[in-house]
């Protein structure tokens, strides 16, 4: 497969996929609608996969198309950044780059984003503060912060990253020993592992958010470690209400089973907080792009 010839096709695919429209993509790229259609057809033939489905409302991505989009967007962003840097006369960013981040994201999102950032900006020195607490940017000399939940009243700028939702899960070994969980009422008869952010009553919802419950479950174990709660569940110690994007890879490996699949816990919206009123420094903007990219990637599960 000639990746050099495929690169322009991937960039066209990203535009069509993001706009969900051949017409809007053609207008943005200055090409005819038929030319756009031909390029997408070439890409599908080269990959041997159907990526898009047309209907009366526009364009729908197949599951393969969704996966390809998440990875192709990074290619487009890197190309855009490379062209921007050619025209940029500013000095290469250097020195400390301080960011606070919740412990949920340090492994699967932060580390790959930082690795790519340091490749593109080799003179910066990342300083990462991992904490679930609000960190004031000025007080803690931060360039940026990742924060989830209700934003504090402040003069900082907040850019959306996405939502994280809790799901119930347990190991097959635990369920074999203690039995299935068929309803919310069954939770009181099971061992529950309390994660760091869970206090008092649990807030539970149906998928449509039309039903809402507050229940109190006596924990069999309490931990302040995010990964520790997951490891306890993996070692047959109980049921855990855990962020879906962290639990679902273990579900795919069949090391965990989703319990009460029609019930979720709370959802948190996460934001990228910064204090720049005008254009952000290039490395700060790029870090936001990379963080969003890897956040979307882990949510493909």
Automatic annotation (TrEMBL):
Keywords in UniProt for this one? Answer: DNA-binding, Transcription, Transcription regulation
Family stated for the protein in its record? Belongs to the LysR transcriptional regulatory family.
Molecular function GO labels = DNA binding; DNA-binding transcription factor activity
Q: Which residues form the HTH lysR-type domain?
A: 1-62
Q: Which organism is it from?
A: Vibrio quintilis
- Quote the protein name from its UniProt record: Glycine cleavage system transcriptional activator
Q: Which gene encodes it?
A: gcvA_3
**What Pfam families does this protein's entry cite?**
HTH_1, LysR_substrate
């Amino acid at each position: 497969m000639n990746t050099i010839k495929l690169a322009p096709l991937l960039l066209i695919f990203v535009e069509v996929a993001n706009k969900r429209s051949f017409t809007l993509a053609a207008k943005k790229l200055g090409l005819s609608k038929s030319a756009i259609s031909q390029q997408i057809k070439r890409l599908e033939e080269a990959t041997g996969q159907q990526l898009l489905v047309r209907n009366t409302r526009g364009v729908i991505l197949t599951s393969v198309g969704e996966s390809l989009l998440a990875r192709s967007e990074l290619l487009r962003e890197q190309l855009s950044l490379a062209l921007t840097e050619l025209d940029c006369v500013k000095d290469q960013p250097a020195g400390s780059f301080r960011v606070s981040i919740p412990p949920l994201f340090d492994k699967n999102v932060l580390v790959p984003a930082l690795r790519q950032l340091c490749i593109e900006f080799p003179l910066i020195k990342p300083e990462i503060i991992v904490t679930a607490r609000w960190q004031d940017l000025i007080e803690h000399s931060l360039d940026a912060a990742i924060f989830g939940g209700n934003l504090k009243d402040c003069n900082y700028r907040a850019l959306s990253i996405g939502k994280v939702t809790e799901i119930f899960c347990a190991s097959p070994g635990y369920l074999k020993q203690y039995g299935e969980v068929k309803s919310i009422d069954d939770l009181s008869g099971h061992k529950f592992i309390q994660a760091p952010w869970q206090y008092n009553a649990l807030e539970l919802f149906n998928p449509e958010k039309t039903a809402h419950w507050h229940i109190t479950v006596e924990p069999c174990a309490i931990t302040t470690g995010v990964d520790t709660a997951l490891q306890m569940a993996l070692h047959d110690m109980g049921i855990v209400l855990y962020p879906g994007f962290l639990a679902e890879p273990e579900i795919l490996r069949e090391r965990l089973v989703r319990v009460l699949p029609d019930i979720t816990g709370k959802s948190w919206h996460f934001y990228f907080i910064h204090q720049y009123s005008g254009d952000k420094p290039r490395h700060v903007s790029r870090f936001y792009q990379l963080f969003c990219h890897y956040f979307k990637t882990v949510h493909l599960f």
